[in-house]
Specification:
EC 2.4.1.291; N-acetylgalactosamine-N,N'-diacetylbacillosaminyl-diphospho-undecaprenol 4-alpha-N-acetylgalactosaminyltransferase; 13 strands; transferase; single chain; Rossmann fold; 2 domains; about 15% strand; glycosyltransferase activity; alpha/beta
Length: about 400
């Protein structure tokens, strides 16, 4: 039996975590033994991990997201030293390279200078394939014994500032780099052109059966009871998702004479900012934060339009999930938007500018013919892609050659 190890950070609610569940639900467990190492055994989606998966014990990696004062209490001095060193050198590097304050260097350096203090994972086992599904990618390549190593890209590298030299050293150690879309690949290679030969395309795995089973677990119509147009957005409350501009966009729509309520599912650091914007535009009766939901599918089923208003994305899993549930989807024209959907065929792309975004949403609401065309297309097409797991089997097969 072939052995696979997958490493990720935790099972908080998020698109990448749902993609991980999709992957875990697609394996042939009669022929593949799958171990899962999570830095932390927490998150609302932890209990959704398939029972066939062997969840490995935690180790010092749990301290990567722990407040530094807690490291002192728990006497994790080596990890504290590594994180402080990483923070100091990252700030120095950011200043030298004149990078934006919103950058990924601090996270990269934190991982770079702490992985040496993390125990080896299952040191007595050599895996056929070790997969680093999400950062920190340093752990998989340096703390696992495997015949082949693969890391996954889940972000748009054209939108973030990084220390290219440092990250190149990390990525170079992998045999394969899995990309979830052509646009993600192009953005990644614009920073790391020398890694082109390592790139393989593996889409986020989403299965229709799993989504439909959960979509009918309960009826969200009561929570979203409304006679007007019900709009829905899902994601982490972060700069990338652009939820702080939802109130402004919604105000334009309402001022144009449309009766709408816009529901937001998720959590994150920008929640207070979003609430402040709701209050600023006096939209307490029109924009609603529903918070964390470990099962978002009944809400997608209950909405009229699913909207992804992001500033940037790798590839939004929720967009594909909404399409599987035959919902009209509207996304903004973020850099990778055209790899997310086919404009006018299985959804529509509108401008990112708030006013033009609102106008695009209104135009789509008014175009009933286009909506029917898109819904008919969605109903006739199967967006499940469990077959993507075959690409992983092929990589493991190469080990035998």
């Amino acid at each position: 039996m072939k052995k696979i190890l997958i490493i990720s950070h935790a099972m908080e609610i998020g698109g990448a975590e749902r993609a991980l569940l999709g992957l875990l639900n697609s394996f042939d467990y009669k022929n593949y033994e799958v171990d899962l190492f999570l830095c932390r055994h927490d998150g609302d989606m932890f209990n959704q991990i398939p029972k066939q998966v062997n969840i490995l014990p935690m180790n010092q990696a749990k301290y990567l997201a722990t407040p530094m004062k807690n490291l002192i209490k728990e006497k994790a001095y080596k990890m504290l030293y590594g994180r402080l060193k990483g923070k100091y050198l990252a700030n120095k590097r950011v200043k030298k390279l004149s990078l934006k304050l919103d950058n990924q260097v601090g996270l990269t350096y934190s991982h770079k200078y702490t992985y040496k203090y993390i125990d080896f994972i299952n040191k007595d086992i050599e895996y056929d394939l070790a997969i680093s599904f999400l950062t920190p990618h340093y752990i998989c390549r340096n703390k696992v014994k495997a015949k082949k190593y693969m890391a996954w890209i889940h972000t748009d590298y054209s939108t973030i500032d990084i220390d290219i030299e440092t990250e190149l050293g990390m990525w170079n150690k992998y045999d394969y780099i899995a990309s979830i879309s052509e646009n993600c690949t192009e953005a990644f290679l614009s920073k790391f052109p020398s890694l082109k030969s390592k790139i393989i395309r593996i889409d986020n795995i989403i299965t229709k059966d799993m989504i439909y089973d959960q979509a009918y677990q309960f009826d969200a119509c009561e929570e979203m009871s409304f006679n007007g147009f019900k709009l829905l957005s899902i994601g982490r409350f972060s700069y990338a998702k652009n939820f702080d501009n939802i109130p402004a966009i919604c105000k334009y729509i309402i001022d144009s004479g449309y009766t709408v309520k816009w529901y937001i599912l998720g959590y994150g650091g920008d929640e207070n900012l979003i609430r402040d914007k709701i209050e600023e535009y006096n939209l307490q009766e029109h924009v609603f934060i529903l918070g964390k939901k470990d099962n978002p599918y009944p809400y997608i089923k209950a909405c009229d339009y699913y909207i992804q208003p992001s500033r940037y994305e790798g590839k939004a899993v929720t967009v594909r999930e909404a399409q599987i549930l035959d919902k009209p989807v509207i996304i903004t024209d973020f850099p990778t938007a055209k790899s997310q959907l086919n404009n006018g065929v299985d959804g529509v792309i509108v401008p990112l500018d708030n006013k033009k975004c609102a106008e695009g949403i209104i135009n789509f609401i008014n175009d009933r013919k286009l909506q029917r065309k898109i819904i008919s297309y969605l109903e006739l097409h199967n967006y499940s892609n469990a077959g993507e797991v075959e690409k992983i089997y092929q990589l493991i097969g190469e080990n035998d050659e």
